[in-house]
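hi! just following up on the protien thing from before. the input was this:
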Amino acid sequence: MFKYRLHYLSDMDDACERHYESEFPVKIGDVIEPGDGFYYCVVKEHKQKTGVRLDLSKSAQDAEEAVLLAQQYGHL
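and the predicted 3d structure came back as:
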């Protein structure tokens, strides 16, 4: 199991998940759904002493929209 901390570049609020677990490694360009009902494109990965942090682009209603928003915002 891969565990990540999440950093939101656009839509951070109290309802956003802070952590994400996946059976498979997450890479830049992947779209994840952390459990809040929205999809986010992974735009950067930071390896830190305490684990890996993923930077996420703006939230979207589906995976395709998440990638398009990341491109519009210049994150990809």
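The chain has one domain: 2-72.
The mean pLDDT is 94.
cheers
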